[in-house]
Amino acid sequence: MSEEQTTQALDVVNSVDPASDALQNDDAGGNSGNADESPEALAEKLAAAQHAAAENWDKLLRVQAEMDNLRRRTEKDLQNAHKYALEKFARELLAVVDSLELGIQAATGDSPEVAKLREGSDLTLKQLLGALEKFGVAQIDPHGQKFNPELHQAMAVEPSAEAEPNTVVKVFQKGYQLNDRLLRPAMVVIAQQA
Predict the structure, then answer these.
(1) Quick one: DSSP state of residue 180?
(2) Is the pTM of this model over 0.90?
(3) How far is 103 from 70, CA to CA, in rounded Å?
(4) What is the mean pLDDT of the chain?
(5) Is 131 exposed, middle or buried (0-12, 13-18, 19+ CB in 10 A)?
(6) What is the pLDDT of residue 180?
(7) Oligomeric state and partners (predicted)?
């Protein structure tokens, strides 16, 4: 143990263990008390003081390790808070995206008014999806992909001769992720061997 570590250990012992104060007070009082004590008694006191110092040094190291772990956890929590701060807001906007998509699908007909409505809704949807993407919200559209239970929720199974088994053949509702955290799974129909 270096001289600096010994000094630190004694500081910790003095601040934590009142018994060590009594030992130091005996030392400060002169050698009058020590002159009557045998070397064995002094060796026992020294061993006890060294044991207490070692215990307190161990406590100090544990507290420092705890503080380092707490600092790392706090930093990680803060990073996650920044990264996922928009989670609730993004979830609320998903209903708006769904409504726009349904409105576009429902806008059928060949009249110029319907065509203008569809065009305006398409542009609005693209802008909204662009804004969501700018803040880390990504759309999950798994049509034709293998079923992934981490990202997709199977709503039904459909026999299919064309598609491979466990492949998404229909998407009821698209899923979304915020910075790799799932906001909503994609609601899908998966193929079953016919």
Answers:
(1) T
(2) no
(3) 50
(4) 85
(5) exposed
(6) 86
(7) Homodimer.
Looking up tokens 């809704």, which residue turns up? 121
Q: CA 98, CA 16: separation in Å to the nearest integer?
A: 63
The mean pLDDT of 168-182, rounded to a whole number, is: 93
Type of residue numbered 179? N
Burial code (b: 16+ CB inside 10 Å, e: under 16) for 26-47 equals eeeeeeeeeeeeeeeeeeeeee
Largest CA distance in the chain: 114
**pLDDT tens profile 136-155:** 999 999 999 999 999 999 99
Q: Which pLDDT score, from 0 to 100, does residue 123 have?
A: 95
Contacts of 145 (CB under 8 A, 6+ apart): 167, 168
d(CA 174, CA 186): 5
| Residue 148: count of CB within 10 angstroms of its CB | 15
CB 181 within 8 A of CB 87: yes
Q: Following DSSP, what letter does each residue of 137-163 receive, concatenated?
A: EEEE--TTSBP-TTTEEEEEEEEESSS
Distances (CA, A) of 122 to 21, 81, 97, 125: 79, 33, 11, 5
Extract the tokens encoding 41.
Answer: 């008694």
The helix or strand, by DSSP H or E, that contains position 184, with its residue range, turns out to be: strand 181-184
Q: What is the pLDDT of residue 24?
A: 52
Residues 6 or more apart whose Cβ sits within 8 Å of residue 14: 20, 21, 24
